[in-house]
Automatic annotation (TrEMBL):
InterPro entries: Integrase_cat-core, RNaseH-like_sf, RNaseH_sf, Transposase_IS3/IS150/IS904. Residues 1-109 form the Integrase catalytic domain. It comes from the Bacteria. GO terms for biological process: DNA integration. This is Integrase catalytic region. Gene3D superfamilies: Ribonuclease H-like superfamily/Ribonuclease H. Signal peptide: none annotated. GO terms for molecular function: nucleic acid binding.
Amino acid sequence: MPCVSKCLGNPLLIHFDQGSEYLGAENIGFLKASGIQISVSAKGHPWENGYKEAFYSQFKLDLDAKHLNRFETIGEVAAHVYRTIFYHNNKRIHTALKTNPVEYKKRYYEKLPASFLNSNVHCTRISSKEMGT
């Protein structure tokens, strides 16, 4: 989140589900300190966060998660997960984007004004000092 804020400014609102990674004190503290309104889905209402639910549903299909027992080592599972993520980001055409996420990001940055691209704001890396850790 600090990287997004640094690059694009703080959103007015952020929405997430009941996951502990989102409701943790550090995350909530950062959001409140940044003046970002927090919206949380009600328990048992996954349709309130449809984009994320759709992602995980498709990811599990691409991963063939029901058959992970076919691997003999955790390394084989990790390699399969890596290939699935690579496919999802680089090859799989996403209906809403009409392309893959990597190509979409490339096109997005091509549309940004040169003044933004030449500024000192960079989103690819953020130090732990900048993250406050």
